[in-house]
Each structure stands twice: as C-alpha cells, then as structure tokens.
Specification:
By secondary structure, the protein is mostly helical. It is built from three helices and no strands.
C-alpha cells in the first residue's frame, strides 16, 4: 500500500469521523442550556451605544 492510498483511506474514515464529531460538539456547545443569556447580550452589542463620539459632535453641522 503506497502513501497516497493509506492517506486517502485514513481521510475517508477516521478523519471524516473526527470532523463530524467536532462539528456535532460545536453545535451542542452553541445550543447548550444557559447560553441564551450570553448570546442575547452579545447580539445587542451593535445596538447598545447610540451616542456619537466626541469628535463627531462639533463638526459645524447644525442638522445633526
């Protein structure tokens, strides 16, 4: 058995199984109980601070 055949057989069996188990583990970790509060707070980060930076407040534009 040459190297290519061995690596091909390894990738088709054990590496595929390892990648699937890793994927399933990530999905289970993301949807675990108790993580809802964490993901809700992270989802609100772009909407949290509506104030303008100090450098943007006095640009001479009265329409702001």
């Amino acid at each position: 058995m040459n190297t290519y055949s061995f690596l091909r057989q390894l990738a088709d069996s054990w590496v595929l199984l390892a990648m699937f188990l890793f994927f399933a583990g990530v999905i289970l970790w993301a949807f675990r109980p108790g993580s809802t509060k964490v993901y809700d707070s992270v989802a609100q980060i772009p909407l949290g601070d509506d104030t303008q930076p100090k450098s943007m407040t006095n640009k001479g534009d009265d329409n702001v």
